[in-house]
């Protein structure tokens, strides 16, 4: 494993992910998480009723500034009540049944450390669909769904709150972000190269190029043919967080139309955003790890897979807003190839 330091100019981000649920079993009624450059700073939920800072540098920052911990704790408790009230309000106004409902918010800011450009964002989702979004340029809320129009009109009439939000996202949030970057600089700027494997469930399945253990999460992975990136017969997965704070991702290639003598014309390429050289692995049957004929799963099925299944069982799509909160809860995606693979 190679560890190196990134000195490149990048866009930094501070994001808050809040999720409230109603009628979803085996999941907290409220979950909150904060990330800087996709690294989790802290976590809270309605079960533990407290904020847990994650990286060591964040814990040290909290020790020196205990009022910062108190600020986050108050926000966590306050948002539990705020989101619960809003779910009840939406249920009544939209005449919804007692079935499961999920309200989520992603908000925060980005800062370009080279140009100084700052952008802010505040987006709500309800039951897996876009619901409301704040446009800071026009200082108005937009509603892609007709069910959110009344809320949009009410919020757009609240000029004082809109001015407060603009001040927060343009000034306060970037200052917080810069402070976190300054304290966590040595940790946030290091890079760890991934372990890359070619995986296949059956001889007729797609070949998945799986990278895991890389840091930071700003990375790309794609397939090339004769050195040129291809998009046909390719499906990219999301970047997901592992338990140890590193990341994983996969990109699949449908090889059904690839002749046996043409496999080596294909390469899977991994690259960090603006950092170092590409990492390549050639499509080669001898390199593929498989569990052909094996039906049992890894002993340690992880919580991201379990929680995604919970939402799917309740009828919600798994590839919508749920990545906002789920990757920040003890997060390693279940990998169906990790048991009894050919060495």
Protein model, in words:
The chain has 343 residues and is α+β, with helices and mostly antiparallel strands. It folds into 2 domains: 9-188, Murine Class I Major Histocompatibility Complex, H2-DB, Chain A, domain 1; 191-290, Immunoglobulins (Immunoglobulin-like), CATH 2.60.40. It contains 6 helices and 20 strands. The protein has helices spanning 56-64, 66-93, 149-157, 159-183, 185-188, 303-313, and strands at residues 3-5, 11-22, 30-36, 39-45, 52-53, 101-112, 118-126, 129-135, 140-142, 190-192, 195-200, 207-214, 219-225, 228-229, 234-236, 240-241, 247-253, 266-272, 275-282, 288-290. The strands form 4 sheets. Strands 5-4-3-2-6-7-8-9 form an 8-stranded antiparallel beta sheet. Strands 11, 12, 15, 16, 17 and 20 form a 6-stranded mixed beta sheet that branches. Helix 1 packs across helix 2 (66-93). The protein is globular and about 65 Å long. The two termini are 19 Å apart.
